[in-house]
Input
Amino acid sequence: MKLVSTFFLSLFLIGCAATGEKYSGLKPPTSSESQVYIYRPYRFFQGGAWPTVFINGEEVATLKNGGYIHYSLPPGNHAIKIGKKRMLSNWSMGDAQASTNTEIGKRYFYKLLVDPNDVGYIGGMVLVSGRARLVTVPEDEAVLELRELKSSM
Output
């Protein structure tokens, strides 16, 4: 029975991870746009949940565990939000937000961090709460981390 349970748990966790193409390098910027990379390193905590990425209020993609998205934007001010799409979303960490003023031909990198911050035990259940943060990452650091990820798009 233990083996069967482990098998199904493994299938569940694999199904929640990004399954797109493995990162193969940065895309060359165009002469009229900027590029934004948003990524989420693989973590067990909240690994089965996938939030929705919004740019300027428009839904762009879902960001799965161990995944990244690449998006081209015109120059100017942009609002990035990662959170719930709708009421029945499996994302419970709240919204993570950032704003950026992009320039033509430049790349911007944001990492979604999901940190556990409190553990409780109630009636035989362990409860873990946490928070999500969207942080700016330098290109050299982001490229090293992106090498381990797959596309969420």
